[in-house]
Amino acid sequence: MTDSATDSTATGSTATGSTVELPVEIDRIQALLPHRYPFLLVDRLIEFEAGRRAVAIKNVTVNEPYFNGHFPGRPVMPGVLLIEAMAQTAGLLTQLTRVISPPGSQAPVGLVFYLAKIENARFLRSVGPGDQLTLEAHLVREIRHIARYDCYARIGAEPVAEARITCADMSRQ
Questions:
Q1: Which of 6, 18, 33, 172 is the most buried (most CB within 10 A)?
Q2: In this structure, are residues 61 and 129 in contact, taking their beta carbons and an 8 Å threshold?
Q3: 138 given a catalytic annotation
Q4: Per-residue pLDDT averaged across 20-47, rounded?
């Protein structure tokens, strides 16, 4: 995390000169993503470069509903939820990029992206109560209604998971 990530007056850079005030808090995240508790897995967006990358935080607490059964006595965040948290970070990158697009652009807001493909997923360390995940998504390529991201999760400097995630816009169906 950079110093600007903790400064409530920091801004994310954009190609158009527009800015996004950082951090992006949960109320704005809920306006950008359709997910809700218990499936909203991003607490705060701390870094943003339009059309390039986004960095978010997920505070993992003992009260997470999945810990009751995964696993009793040794709570571990399921790997599929790590993938989902990274995908939600990618969704924030896409949605915020569209929100700040210049007037008259063809960038629609309010798209609904679904996971279409997960490649090269690796889980390198378990995640449990008290951990703070840093989630990072880099846009690799976007063509029409399909976007591909390289995503990473870490705790501090330690890698936790990584995957190449492809999402497809399903809002037209």
A1: 33
A2: yes
A3: no
A4: 96
